[in-house]
Amino acid sequence: MNPGKLILVTGAAGYIGGLLIPCLLARGDRVRCLVRNAADLQSRSWFSQVEIMQCDLIDCAGLSKAMEDVSAAYYLIHSMARGQHYHELDLTAASAFASAASAAGVEHIIYLGGLADPDASIGLHMRSRIQTGSILRQGSVPVTEFRASLIIGPGSISFEMIRYLTEQFPFLVGPRWLHNRAQPVAVQNVLDYLLAALETPACRGKVIEIGGPHILTYAETMLEYARLRGLKRRLLTLPVIPVRLMAYWVDKLTPISETIAAPLIDGMRSDSVVRDNVALQIFPDIQTLDYQAAVSCALRQLSPAQIEPTWSSSPVSDIIVKHAGFLIDFRQIRVEASPEAVYLACTRLGGKQGWLYLDGLWKLRGLLDQLIGGPGMRGRQDELNEGQVVDFYQVEALEPGQMVRLRADLKAPGEGWMEWKVKAQPEGGTNLSQVAYFAPKGVPGFLYWYLLYPVHRLVFAGLIKEIARRAVEIHQTE
Fold first, then answer.
1. What does the alpha-carbon distance between residue 359 and residue 375 come to, in Å, rounded to a whole number?
2. Burial grade of 256 (CB within 10 A; 0-12, 13-18, 19 or more)
3. What percent of the chain has pLDDT over 90?
4. β-strands 108-114, 6-10 pairing
5. What CA–CA distances, in Å, run from 447 to 280, 358, 444?
6. Nearest Cα to 279, choosing from 120, 413, 158, 145?
7. Are residues 399 and 256 in the same domain?
8. How many structural domains is the chain composed of?
9. Which residue from 225, 353, 203, 381 is spatially nearest to 299, judged by alpha carbons?
């Protein structure tokens, strides 16, 4: 396929779609995103570089328009978040998509589904993924269907379930089917396959099972994660644990909602391994990472600089988010001051001027840190630059006039950051967002966050208001 052709991506607000789009743009392709709610993409770094069409996949008129002039279309969606009738919705959407693509003369559909043996007893979610591929192939457009097991990467539903549960439980309790087998695949390799399909005619009309080089049990994926993270974990299996009970706790302890967790967990009742190695024949140049390498790569990306702030498009003024290994406190406020004044107020925090709100608590935290071997309150220089000290923080990143991010040097069972972003508003004034990131390590890290959060919540709420107030004062003297 020649660069510059128009590529349609469904599921652009999802995990794989969000990673695939910048790869397509880097190739020189034009990208059209099909989403139910365009506002979900506003925080993406590539938002201004793509064409966005808003419609539901069962909207035939909207689909026909979305398919105009499209060369290849990626089908990266499911309907699990819509509740118990997701299976019927999946098949209806796939049928509508296949029909619209056929009518528009689309050359190629590339679909990412789930890996399971269709002749075995499998969960409804896995059955739905396989049947979706069958429905897509009923149209006249050649389909490449990739079937993947657990996808390992920061933000992946599979990986985040492994991460958050393993981090929080010294004893990993689960049903006997935790000993069923999976073949995890690194998200980097999933993207390799999806992109290579554009340039590989031999893959058209094929069902291609993809996985990493090693097969592990579901239990082993958690125990190996724990080993790589330096955590001691033990496994306890019980004869039966209700799926709904497991989904409830996944909802409470991880970023995955109960609605999505239930079908995912149910899908683990069977093996998810590659039975046909056709991928090696069609894509011999793709070298797959093993599970250890994939997890290690994901852990190296445990930084605010490595994740898309998908929560920042939220209309609410403050939310708590679990995302990609982080516990996040996000706040935003409208300030009746210029962006320059707001940014200046952010860059003056710490040192002799203090932290504007409950400064005594900041000093107490610094003193306690110093007593246990941490740096404590170290002051700061007048001018802020990357790498400089601001009390018990270091300046990790600066975007003049737009963003300040500080990384904590505190002694704590995890890593922390504070970040402020400044954005002028079309109607006047400035939007100030404040994000506290904490990446907990093990049970102590989660206890640290939750036990101190009432105090942190008070401090974070007061701090952003005081920054706004100080910005107004600076604006009035400009």
1. 17
2. buried
3. 74
4. unpaired
5. 45, 23, 5
6. 145
7. no
8. 2
9. 225
Note whether residue 368 is domain-resident.
Answer: yes
**Is residue 257 included in any domain, yes or no?**
yes
Q: List strand residue ranges (DSSP E) for 308-356, in order.
A: 318-323, 326-335
Instruction: Return the H-helix or E-strand segment holding 176.
Output: none
pTM higher than the cut 0.85? yes
Q: Is the pLDDT of residue 82 over 70?
A: no
| Helices 157-168/218-229 angle, 10° precision | 60
Q: Does 394 lie in the same domain as 252? A: no
pLDDT at 35 over 90: no
Q: Which amino acid is at 88?
A: E
171: tokens are 């004893």
Centre a 10 Å sphere on the Cβ of residue 367 and count the other Cβ atoms it contains: 12
* Banded pLDDT at 13 (limits 50, 70, 90): confident
> How far is the C-alpha of 330 from the C-alpha of 352, rounded, in Å?
26
Domain membership of residue 421 (yes or no) is yes
Task: Give me the domain span that covers residue 193.
Answer: 6-300
Last residue of a domain, one of 262, 279, 300: 300
Q: What's the confidence (pLDDT) of residue 1?
A: 43
Instruction: Output the average pLDDT for the chain.
Output: 92
**How many of the other CB atoms lie within 10 Å of CB of 192?**
20
212 closest CA partner among 324, 302, 297? 297
